[in-house]
From TrEMBL:
Transmembrane segments: none annotated. SUPFAM superfamilies: UDP-Glycosyltransferase/glycogen phosphorylase (SSF53756). InterPro entries: Glycos_transf_N (IPR007507), Glycos_transf_N_sf (IPR038107), Kdotransferase (IPR039901). This is 3-deoxy-D-manno-octulosonic-acid transferase N-terminal domain-containing protein. One of its GO terms (cellular component) is plasma membrane. It comes from marine sediment metagenome. Residues 8-127 form the 3-deoxy-D-manno-octulosonic-acid transferase N-terminal domain. GO terms for molecular function: transferase activity.
Length: 342
């Protein structure tokens, strides 16, 4: 994280006025020393970074404080409620709460945040997605995977646990009607690649690892690609016909479905989306997302859209529209900080 932040700072227009340091441990003495040394005008914590000693000490020292792009999930509030007296005392020290969704605002109010300091401004992270879409990425991926014309691709990203077998089951049903479809499966954790290899081999599908394609004189020939790299998932979504985002058919809270939606792809996801309800809401509003109950329904609906590619393209356009409509949240969060500084 520190190296990533430093790289981003070097690439930014504000690099001359920006310093990147490790945060102190949330003890009173270390928080007090860090704040006394840095002497900030404002302490802005992001998303779920609620650090009691930082916030209380900053408030005591007259430093403005804010929670920006704040979110409190359905799962996490259960833990916060167990330490409610500490949360109430901490949140009294925060001058502004700029939350992602109305439900986040309601939950942090339940935790003790003063209602007159709370506002809802959307998810600033999603403002970045459109800037990350690069047509050259799509062409690069098409060349890498040797895709011809509009060869159909079923992309399963951030797959976790039991979803590995579910996706292989779904693909087995798809190829009975559409043998030309390629499966690209990306586990959430790269070390699961070998387990996926076992499942694919058991079904008799030809397969290759993504890293195989980096070797000299190796090109894609298999019908299943196991993506065993880190950092390529969003670019790979660009060549998909249909995308399933994992962590959602198992009770793990889902993944960021807008990373696929920004490419104009129809996005499938399961019932467990607790950690990305804001993204789900955006797709629900435009009709760009397709929620399924289980593997059986995923197979049925995937087959329908492979049978009707023009409808899949329409759903994909609605998915991208959801991302476009969310633009501007980062500016709204920034305005909260600006008001505190004036």
């Amino acid at each position: 994280g520190h190296a990533f932040a430093q790289r981003k700072i070097r690439q930014s227009r504000v690099r001359k006025n920006t310093t990147c340091v490790f945060a102190p441990v949330d003890f009173i003495a270390s928080a007090r020393k860090a704040l006394s040394t840095l002497k900030p005008d404002i302490l802005a914590c992001l998303e779920t970074e609620i650090w009691p000693n930082w916030l209380i000490e900053a408030h005591r020292m007259g430093i403005k404080t804010a929670l920006i792009n704040g979110r409190i999930s359905v799962r996490s509030i259960k833990g916060y409620i167990k330490i409610l007296p500490l949360m109430k005392e901490t949140l009294k020290s925060v001058d502004a709460f700029s939350m992602i969704r109305a439900s986040d605002a309601e939950r942090i109010k339940r935790m003790g945040a003063p209602g007159n300091r709370i506002e809802v401004n959307g998810n600033a992270k999603y403002d970045l997605l459109l800037n990350q879409v690069d047509g050259t990425d799509r062409e690069k991926m098409k060349r890498l995977y040797k895709l011809i014309d509009n060869q159909p691709v079923f992309m399963a990203g951030s797959i976790r646990g039991a979803e590995e077998k579910i996706i292989i089951d779904v693909y087995e049903k798809i190829v009975q009607s559409h043998p030309e479809v390629i499966l690209m499966i990306a586990p959430r954790h790269v070390e699961r690649s070998r387990r996926i290899e076992e499942l694919v081999r058991e079904r008799g599908f030809s397969y290759q690892f993504r890293t195989d394609l980096d070797k000299e004189n190796h090109s894609r020939t298999a019908s299943v690609i196991i993506i065993d790299t880190i950092g390529e998932l969003q670019s790979t979504y660009s060549i998909a016909s249909i995308v399933f985002c994992g962590g959602s058919l198992v009770p793990l809270g889902g993944q960021n479905i807008l990373e696929a939606a920004v490419w104009g792809k129809p996005v499938f996801f399961g019932p467990s989306m607790e950690d990305f309800l804001d993204a789900k809401d955006l797709l629900d509003k435009t009709g760009g997302g397709i929620q399924v109950r289980d593997g059986r329904e995923l197979a049925e609906k995937a087959l329908y859209y492979f049978d009707h590619p023009e409808e899949a393209e329409m759903i994909g356009r609605l998915a991208k529209k959801a991302v476009v409509l969310n633009q501007g949240s980062a500016r709204k969060h920034a305005m909260v900080l600006q008001r505190l500084l004036t």
